[in-house]
Amino acid sequence: xxxxxxxxxxxxxxxxxxxxxxxxxxxxxxxxxxxxxxxxxxxxxxxxxxxxxxxxxxxxxxxxxxxxxxxxxxxxxxxxxxxxxxxxxxxxxxxxxxxxxxxxxxxxxxxxxxxxxxxx
Length: 120
What we know:
3-stranded antiparallel beta sheet; alpha+beta; 3 helices; flat; 3 strands
């Protein structure tokens, strides 16, 4: 067992303490117009008014994906995404209810909902 001795002598410079910088000054939000004080804002409705509607093609793809997820769930299966342990690429697999891999799927098949025969 060895002991180390640390000596702090009078030759050490004293510690200096500096004040923290003042936080930036934020301007106050604009005052509400007359009669708007205490108005409850519906954030979801405001976002919906600002958002552009999704194209019909996107809505159709979302509906197909939803139907596929429901069909797989009815069959006790699910698609899981992961990263390949060697090259870090995204991989997909068809898994059972316990999460055990049933078969690998190509990302193109997953994207288009076209699984090989017997996979879904």
